Automatic annotation (TrEMBL):
PANTHER family tied to this protein: SHORT-CHAIN DEHYDROGENASE/REDUCTASE, ZINC-CONTAINING ALCOHOL DEHYDROGENASE
Protein origin, superkingdom: Bacteria
Family matches, as Gene3D superfamilies: Medium-chain alcohol dehydrogenases, catalytic domain, NAD(P)-binding Rossmann-like Domain
Organism: Paraburkholderia fungorum
Protein name: Alcohol dehydrogenase
Amino acid sequence: MKAAVVKAAGEPPVYADFDRPDPRPGHRVVDVTASALSHVTRSKASGSHYSSKGTFPFVAGLDGAGRCEDGQRVYFFWPQAPFGAMAQQCLVSEANCVLLPDTVDDVTAAAIAIPGMSSWAALVERARFVAGETVLINGATGTSGRLAVQIAKHLGAGKIIATGRNAAVLASLKHAGADVAISLEQDADALSHAFASQFHEGVDVVLDYVWGASALSLLIAAARTLAEDAPLRFVQIGAISGADLLLPAAVLRSAPISLLGSGIGSLPLPRVLHTMQQVFDATARAGLQIATEAVPLADLGAHWGVPDSRQRTVFIPSP
């Protein structure tokens, strides 16, 4: 079969032949119809993700949509190595397959699952969000952040504060449910003041997709501004501005801040899949939207390294 094959560490996958998976008890052979390109997929393929095994060759791809032998449409997650999602077929544990509602097409399902889970799980599973609370989404102009605004609105956030660098997208987020938009393209003092003003009014949960300088500014502003009876749950999700942060210890000692992480590994897998099922069920009902570009898998090389901050690239079977 044809697949996106990673042949060595540090090399991007190539469109090449790979053995088809054999049936196995407790697993399903899935005919793949769509598999999205995500930050996690890229980092796992490169060997930099904490779940990478370092065994080659293998097929790239963490999740996708497809059909089982009995014709059921499913979303599947974490195929059995070395059979990744970016192939004509993959092998998946039965427990890692979620039935797809008819209201969600395969490309949308593949595109929305991981970014939708990232904010839904962060809010519901990690932060224990309560309807009516105020949510600040740091890095809301990326694909996942834009979806996080919609999901926070759907879950009943009383106020949503969005930050980002893309001015046009930031402005458009007010139509998606954001009440306040803060540009990260301002000097450190102005940004700190903007954050402090919001914390003074009250922020219950921060969803951070970027880490780096803006996250540090947020945490310091919160430490300086939060009242003793106004605890903050800061949930770290992504790190597109850098993996490391030099955080003064006093920040966590001087204010009621709970620093949490949300991602693959922070939740039991059944809860991750349950969250994805909730995202699928809410997609049509809440009108959740994610921009996608469906691309034949044979065109893998032209799209693998292209940034996808505005739309999610989804690989589909080549003609």
